[in-house]
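Troubleshooting entry. The earlier prediction with zinc ion gave an output that would not parse, so I re-checked the input for stray whitespace and re-submitted. Clean input:
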Amino acid sequence: MGRNGCTHGGVSRRDFLHLTCGCALAVATFGEAFANSDPIRVTQAMGGSMGAKVRATFLGHSIFRIDTPGGKTIYIDPWVGNPKAPANAKQVDKADLILVTHGHADHLGETVEIAKKTNARVLTMPELSTYLGNQGVPAANLIRMNLGGTATAIPGTPIRVTMVRADHSSTVFYTDPQTKVVSMTTVGGAVGYILHLENGLRIYHAGDTALYGDMELFGKRYKPDVAMLPIGDHFTMGPEDAAEAARMWGVKTAIPMHYATFPVLTGTVEAFKQALSPQITLKAPAPGDTVEF
Ligand SMILES: [Zn+2]
Ligand SMILES: [Zn+2]
């Protein structure tokens, strides 16, 4: 157990990747009844510093730190020890909210350590919430959600989070340090999130997912401005499916993630760019770089 590789018993990060992201899991979808209304957009009048920008900093793999116009800091899938992370990524002094898309170690990452250190609220599926509670994250800081829900994520702000489907699996592996026997726990489904921020911006973070047809429905329903999409292939969509996902979600800007961390993640930004609709702006920050909206 520790910061430098094994947060779940004796399984190394690399072993985790071999053990985890392999199978797709279809989870529930929203009903058609939701397709034509749009009551969720957070208006500028609801809060935040007018004119301030959203800053999205890529920290390698699928990790983003979002600094909001109202001064809040949100981490998504904080595997800050990933091989591509900038040197200062592990230095997390402030976090108001952590979103975890699923239990695989390359997404759960250092959630427990960061949550304990910063007192951040952690939003995820109920099953993974229970696991995090057992690991010592205070119950009062756990936001238990499920698919289709939208929750106020940081009290006193208009920031909200919608949990949407991802076609993927969600498991935590544990190796008994004495016997070396590997056991596993399924921790709910894998999900994606739509962040509704103070300035009205909506960011969709897909987590790990395959392409699926309801992205078109969700795009009409939630109208995100930005999509953070896995392009690495093998465990998730590759570049061409990710480009199709960006089209289906109807976003203005697409940001690739979950590529090049390991050799098996072969999808490239160049292939994504080739496949992406010319109406969609590609932003591909290097680890440590920030994109403003
Ligand atoms: Zn995964
Ligand atoms: Zn992954």
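This one parsed fine. The CA atoms of residues 240 and 275 lie 6 Å apart.
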